[in-house]
Amino acid sequence: MDYPIGRKRFASRDGDQAVDGATSLCYRRPVANPLSEPAENPVVTGRGDDPSTWVDLHGDALYRFAILRVKDPGTAEDLVQETFLSALRAAAPFKSESSQRTWLVGILKHKIIDHFRKNTVEVLAADIAPWEEEDDVEYFDRTGHWKRAVHPWKDSPDELVENKEFWKTFQSCLERLPETHRRAFTLREIDETKSEEICEILAVSPANLWVMLHRARSRLRKCLDAKWFGAARKEVR
Amino acid sequence: MMINCKESAIRSSQLRERRVKGIRKLELWYHLLICRFCRTYHGQIQMLGKLSRLIGKASAGSTGVFEDASDERLSAEAKTRIKKNLTAV
Predict the structure, then answer these.
(1) CB atoms A88 and B86 under 8 Å
(2) Which of the residues A26, A58, A64, A104 would you substitute to probe the B interface, choosing the one with the greatest number of B C-beta atoms within 10 Å?
(3) Which domain, by its residues, includes A174?
(4) I need a labelling partner for A41 at 20 to 30 A (CA). Which of A131, A194, A214, B41 fits?
C-alpha cells in the first residue's frame, strides 16, 4: 500500500492521517510494528518472567544496538528503557531467550526510528554538495582525476567483523560523520532500510538522500583507509 | 563515453541505490575497465556496504560476534534505574 507524498499536507488513501511531506517526494511505506503484531510473536500464555531479569539478560545487547545508531549514551539508555517499558505493557513472555531478544530488538528499532523522526536535524547546503571542498582538492586534480593512488584493502569483511579493534575504529569513524549523514548511512547500509522509507523518516528528498549517502560513504572510506587499512599498510612496510 | 574519476566515484555510490542505469551505467563500467584506482574505490564502496550489513546483523544479536567485539555496556546506574522503572509499572 504505497502512496506518494506530495509537497503539501495530504491525507492517506484510508483518510486516517495527514502527513507532512514538505521536503519529500518519496513513497511512504507502512512499517510493521512488532508491538502491534503479537500474533507473529512466539507468545506463551500468562506473564511469567520477572521483568527485572530482562535488563540483565538483554540490557547490554540492546544498548550496544542503540549506541551504534544514536551515538549519544544518554539517548541510547533512554531508548533501551522505553523498549523494556513498551515490551512490558504490550506482551507476554516468550518461550526462549533468543526469540525474546529478537522481539525486543524489533521494538528498539522502531524506537530509534521514532527518535529520528521526532528529533530531525537540519540539512545544511554543505551536507548535500556532492563533494566536500577539502576532499575535492585533496583527491582530484582540475580535470577530475585522482591526484594520488587509491590503495586496495586487503582484509575480508567476514574477518574484520570479528575483530574487536576494527569495531572500535568503525564506530569512531561512524561517529565522526555529520549527524544527517550518519543517520542516513546507518538506516541504509547497516539496517538495510529502503531509500523511500529513509527519506520519509529523515524528511529529505530522494536526491538529497543520495548525496548524503555518497558523502557518508566517501568520508567513512577515507576515515577507515587512514585509521585501519592505511595503518596496516604502514606496518607491512 | 568518457567520464572522469570524480564522476565515477559518485556513480559507484549511486549504483548501490540502483540509481545508475542505461548509458550512465555503461559509462561507469567503461571507466572502471580502464581506471585501476576507480576500480579499487568502487570495490571499497561495495565492501563498505557488505561490512555495514554484517555489522548490522551482528548488532541485532543474530550472531555472538558483537557481544565479544564491543566493549559498550549499559551503565550500572542505568540498569538500576531501568529495573526500578520496570517494577513500578
Answers:
(1) yes
(2) A64
(3) 125-236
(4) A194
